[in-house]
Amino acid sequence: MMSGLWPLLIYSAGLIGLGLWIGRRVGSAGGFFVADRKLGAVLVFATVLAANLGAGTTVGAAGRGYRDGLSAWWWVGSAGIGTLFLAVWVGPRIWRVASEHGLLTMGDYLDHRYGPSVRGLVVLLLWFATLTLLAAQLIAMAEIVSVVTGQPRWVGAAIGGAVVVAYFTAGGLVASAWVNLVQLVVLIVGFAIAIPMGLSAVGGWGAVQAAASARPDYFNFLQGGGSGWIYLALLAPAFIISPGLVQKVYGAVDERAIRVGLLAAGVAMMLLAGVITALGMIAYAHNPALANHEQALPMLFATGLPPVVGMLGLAAVFSAEISSADAALFMLSTSLSKDLYKRFIRPSASDRDMLRVARFGAVAGGVFGLILALVFESIISSLTIFYSVLSVSLFVPVAFGLHSRRAGVPEALAAIGAGLAALAAVALFRPDGAPVLLDQTLVGLIVSALAFAIVTFIRNRGKDEPA
Predict the structure, then answer these.
(1) How confident is the model over 131-180, as pLDDT tens digits?
(2) d(CA 48, CA 40)
(3) Which of 63, 438, 452, 465 has its CA nearest to residue 283?
(4) Fold adopted by 2-374
(5) Distance between CA atoms of 204 and 54, rounded to whole angstroms?
């Protein structure tokens, strides 16, 4: 089995080499953070789509397809819907603000719009939450290496972490964008070959239907098992305002590149949602007795397909996890350098100082992410923490802030505090069998928006009253 590890190691070495070669030309914080705002539509498309296709959208989503059937489409599909809104709504608006004022991070925008208190609070929340996003990617890499070689989980997590830290610290966003393009090609080719061959191996779609014939909700598109349309509340807002994606938007050369690149990425996500769900369902027909449903995709590629095709599929999935891991490192390193170090610790820090701290942040994030990957058992549970905190703490202040100039710091802090409190309350006290609408993220978003609106109304009413 160890022989199966060598292709992944050689492929990983190639990604590191490409990142180091591109990184030779990156010597400024602007180049590292936003690629000097030179990304065209193709690179915006590639780096956003590759960042969106990670552990949750491959290994995790296929595991949901294996367990729940067609309704698992909503996990990746909701992310695609959120990306479409980013393309036509938040993306162009926030790019104009970033370009006009020289903003490099989401924290810069929050500071510009609300001030340092909101910036500091959100950055601290998201820095720790983003570690769970990175951990999820490393867990998926560990599952792949474990299936291929039988090695313990820490081996795969350590290999994946080393690869992404090496090429990302070299070149930041510009290196990430070009490496993501290579990863995306491998992913699309691997999945395009795996679908027909996987179906052929299990006896066609009829065999998939027969395998799940005793489960009537397996082919219910809207809701089945633990999956369904409710994922919209968790994932669509997160993909509209994710700091990692917004900072990739900052790197676009113009608004057209944003709209074209992100619209294409959103549509591609929705199409790939069907592909990945189908692969999970094929894996169920191949082996319906897996103890861990998140091993469905790696196991299908390793044991259900010809060796060459299976290895290409595994390389495609490995690519997806690495590309999302570099998006997590992007958020960790840039927020540490610009949002914390430059803004609060050493305002006089030079461009070179920020670049050094950003690279240190990427390495430190990789180490802490590896530790968490060895603690968490499930990819989806790890991602749920990240997306819930991200959506509830950031969506309302960013989305409302782009449209309302009257709202200020009290509104933003009220939205963040009330939303997080509601999220925690539902997560802790939601009874078994509760209605699907009593979703922790959905309730948190509603409470956050209400708090923002109520404080806005009270403050503006006070301003309008005569002295």
Answers:
(1) 888 888 888 888 777 777 777 777 878 887 887 777 556 555 555 566 66
(2) 12
(3) 63
(4) Sodium/glucose cotransporter (1.20.1730)
(5) 27
| Nearest-10 crossing angle of helices 296-303, 255-286 | 70
Which residues touch 38 (CB under 8 Å, ≥6 apart)? 174, 251, 253
Closest residue by Cα to residue 320 from 24, 6, 62, 5:
62
With a pLDDT cut of 70, the percent of the chain lying above it is 88
C-beta atoms surrounding 153 within 10 Å? 17
pLDDT value for 467:
45
Cα distance between residue 395 and residue 418, in whole Å: 13
Distance CA 296, CA 302 (A): 10
Note the pLDDT of residue 216.
Answer: 84
**C-alpha pair distances (Å), 101 with each of 97, 119, 193, 400, 419:** 6, 16, 46, 19, 29
Long-range contacts of 146-151 (CB under 8 A, 24+ apart): 146/298, 147/295, 147/298, 147/299, 147/302, 148/1, 148/4, 148/5, 148/8, 148/298, 148/302, 148/314, 149/1, 149/2, 149/4, 149/5, 150/1, 151/2, 151/5
Q: How far is CA 387 from CA 131, 277, 411, in A?
A: 12, 20, 22
> Does the CA dihedral 291-292-296-300 come out positive or negative?
negative
Residue 107: CB partners within 8 Å, gap ≥ 6? 119, 122, 123, 243, 335, 338, 339, 343
Per the CB < 8 A criterion, the answer to whether 42 and 192 are in contact is: no
Size of the chain, expressed as the number of residues it contains: 467
Residues 6+ positions from 359 with CB-CB distance below 8 Å? 169, 333
Inter-residue contact 134 to 322 (CB < 8 Å): no
pLDDT tens by residue, 422-466: 999 999 999 888 888 899 999 999 999 999 999 999 988 766 555
| Average pLDDT across the chain, whole number | 85
Bridge partner residues of 227 (DSSP) = 224
For residues 250 and 47, the answer to whether their CB atoms sit within 8 Å is no
Q: In angstroms, rounded to a whole number, what is the distance separating the alpha carbons of residues 215 and 228?
A: 16
Q: Which residue has the tokens 């929705």?
A: 270
**Distance in angstroms (rounded) separating the CA atoms of residues 441 and 357:** 33
Cα–Cα nearest to 440, from 385, 398, 396, 399: 385
Domain-by-domain residue ranges, the chain? 2-374
Q: Cα-flanking dihedrals φ and ψ of residue 157, to 5°?
A: -65, -40
Query: What's the count of helices (H) and strands (E) in the chain, helices before strands?
Result: 19, 2
Sign of the torsion formed by the C-alpha atoms of 179, 180, 184 and 186 = positive
Spatial distance between the Cα atoms of 202 and 212, rounded to a whole number of angstroms:
13
- The predicted model gives 311-327 an average pLDDT of 75
In one-letter notation, the amino acid at residue 122 is V
